[in-house]
Design a protein that fits this description.
Chain lengths: 102, 559
């Protein structure tokens, strides 16, 4: 890429909007995923009894099973949320930047 | 090409005939395995179909871009399935269901760890890989840095991961086929090696992608049938997991303990370290990263991860059901009993899913799932071999040895030679490691990928102040520390070498080796005042603009 094109992109306010919106969103999503996962695995490390207690009186299904499945579903859901927001917001901004500078 | 076209049908015929003969010929030699006719028929259909696809792909594989990246024309949906096919190895299919069969809940801890790496890949590296790279992840790592040392580091780390992963797959393949098809171990390993050499040299990434895609569809449907069938049978037709769990507790030697976490995670430090290795190891596997160059743009790259995460997550939930179904339907069932094996079933714990297929659907389903297990190995090994061959031809040959002055056709030729060499190495390693305990390879592979490949990749994309010196120091330290710590840790030092108490207490050293890598990159970079470092800081601006917008990316419209 030529320097003047880079300069043009960097001085476009929409570029800054894209970068700041996307960066804050993706790092936030990554941190949420890490927090959820580490909450899961550290609960296992610190409090096995919590995970092993029955879901309801008389059941053998433990609390840990729906929690584990929920973490799997949550991980999938976060990728869906990211795709949704990227399609709606980031792609639109990227398209507009390209139209303006190219 | 015309030469290949002429000999291709001949090889195809020879191979089908050869494997059928070999399967029949070794009937008496292998213990506890009779020739399974439905399995062999379905396996031959799969092999014939994939060789047909390879023939089709070979006609369309002409340029380097075709060979490494399937011409960049794979859609997000297709790539998502292919990623799932690349990632769901026999180790996760047979290994996790076996772990659940043996220990119950603990199997789920692995599944969750292996899945949560995917959102991280999506948020932090999938689109960026596509915007900055061309054929290998080393393209990004070498983007604004000194080419020769950076490519050497990235390719070395990639090859180490590929070869470690290959050993595990080949040994698993040999044992599995021996058990399922009644074929001798050595023959099995050789057949796998020859098939992947054919897929990859002739059909490149296009054939590899379709092998992975078909395998993903087969594995997901097979696992669905087994899991639901097992749930139906193990819950007395009520389809209630609770009922299945109750019956599992009644027959399992550990009783109610299988419903909660057991001994996999003991100390918090161990939990954190294991989690880091599983999560970020995934984001450092070269054969997985390579798949992002097969799609047209960042939008498709992001879609691929969405589909892949969905399929892989669904699959892990099925493996959990399969493990519990196996506890109920196999324990105490004389048809599957083998008191000498782990878990008391034929073939040991890792054959829980396969035995379960027979319990649920008789010989036909057993045959289907055996063929699927074999297809799984072929798909994963093809992806690994292609990634290893690309590291050799694109990174080491074209960029280090020839300094970028190389004819594209020559590079593809080197890649095909590298594929053949890697295929032969895989066969030899498979044979050499037959009697070895390869359990430590998972810890080693994921620790190296998380501690060498992932830090330099992540920092190349995001850390504008990184310099060549910092990347080299951090990358090599990560690679060396991960390898050494696994070696002196519990799995190798204590369990395999029998040297007594391990010097390093954790099975997965990622917490320490990743920290060493990141700190190495940071200190090596901030203390670098060279002219080269200044240029590298400045080059980050252009890299970041391309990374953020995709303007100038490979395969994008040029302006």
């Amino acid at each position: 890429m030529q320097d003047d094109l880079i300069h043009k992109i960097k001085s476009n306010p929409k570029y800054h909007e894209l970068v700041s919106k996307r960066n804050s969103f993706k790092w936030m999503m990554a941190i949420i995923m890490l927090v959820v996962y580490y909450a899961f695995i550290l609960t296992i490390a610190f409090d096995k009894e919590f995970m092993a207690q029955p879901l309801s009186a008389g059941s053998v299904t433990t609390v840990g099973i729906p929690i584990g499945v929920a973490v799997i579903l949550f991980a999938f859901a976060t990728t869906g949320v990211y795709v949704f927001r990227a399609n709606a917001v980031f792609d639109k901004l990227t398209r507009e930047i390209k139209e303006e500078v190219l | 090409m015309s030469f290949w076209k002429r000999i291709f049908p001949t090889i195809l015929l020879m191979l089908i005939a050869g494997s059928a003969l070999a399967a029949g010929g070794d009937l008496g030699a292998v213990k506890k395995s009779e020739v399974n006719i439905p399995a062999i028929i379905m396996f031959l259909v799969f092999v014939a179909a994939t060789l047909g696809i390879t023939y089709w792909a070979a006609q369309r594989t002409k340029t380097a871009k075709d060979f490494y990246a399937a011409g960049g024309g794979i859609t997000g949906f297709q790539n998502g399935l292919a990623i799932a096919g690349d990632y769901m190895s026999a180790a996760s299919f047979l290994g996790i269901s076996g772990l659940v069969f043996l220990n119950g809940y603990d199997g789920l801890i692995y599944s969750v760890g292996w899945l949560v790496g995917w959102p991280i890949i999506m948020f932090l590296i999938a689109e960026q890989l596509r915007n900055l790279g061309k054929y290998t992840y080393a393209d990004i790592v070498a983007y604004r840095f000194e080419r020769v040392p950076m490519r050497t580091l990235a390719a070395t780390a990639a090859l180490i991961v590929v070869i470690l992963y290959l050993i595990g797959q080949m040994v698993g393949a040999g044992k599995l086929i021996q058990l399922l098809f009644g074929l001798e171990y050595t023959y099995a390993v050789i057949i796998v090696g020859i098939l992947i050499i054919i897929y990859v040299t002739f059909g490149g990434m296009l054939a590899t992608t379709w092998v992975q895609l078909i395998k993903a569809v087969l594995l997901l449907s097979g696992a669905t049938i087994i899991a639901l069938g097992a749930l139906y049978m193990a819950s007395d037709g009520s389809m209630s997991p609770e009922r299945m769990f109750q019956k599992a507790i009644e027959v399992h030697p550990k009783g109610g303990k299988i419903m909660g976490p057991g001994t996999l995670v003991t100390s918090p430090i161990e939990a954190i370290s294991l989690g880091l290795a599983l999560m970020f190891g995934t984001a450092g596997l070269p054969h997985i990263l390579m798949r992002f160059f097969t799609v047209g743009n960042a939008i498709e790259a992001r879609k691929s991860v969405f589909y892949a995460t969905g399929w892989i997550g669904y699959f892990y939930i099925l493996t959990f059901l399969m493990g519990f179904g196996a506890i109920v339907l196999l324990t105490g069932n004389p048809e599957f009993a083998d008191p000498s094996a782990t878990g008391g079933i034929i073939g040991g714990q890792n054959m829980a899913a396969v035995n379960l297929a027979k319990a649920v659907g008789g010989n036909l389903l057993l045959g289907f799932i055996s063929a699927v297990a074999f297809a799984t190995i072929l798909a994963v090994v093809s992806g690994l071999t292609l990634a290893g061959a690309s590291a050799i031809s694109h990174d080491l040959y074209a960029n280090v040895f020839a300094h970028g002055n190389v004819d594209e056709q020559q590079e593809v030729r080197v890649s095909k030679i590298a594929t053949i060499v890697l295929g032969i190495i895989a066969i030899l390693l498979g044979i050499a490691f037959e009697k070895q305990n390869v359990a430590y390879l998972v810890a080693l592979t994921f620790s190296v990928a998380a501690s060498a490949n992932f830090p330099i990749l992540l920092m190349s994309i995001y850390y504008g102040k990184m310099t060549t010196r910092g990347a080299l120091i951090g990358g090599w330290l990560g690679l060396i520390s991960a390898s050494v710590l696994v070696f002196v840790g519990p799995t190798v030092w204590k369990d395999i070498l029998g040297m007594g108490e391990p010097i390093f207490p954790l099975k997965f050293p990622a917490l320490f080796s990743m920290t060493i890598a990141f700190v190495g990159i940071w200190i090596g970079s901030i203390t670098d005042n060279s002219e080269r470092a200044k240029k590298e800081h400045e080059a980050f601006i252009a890299q970041d603009v391309r990374c953020q917008t995709g303007i100038g990316a490979e395969g994008a419209a040029s302006h």
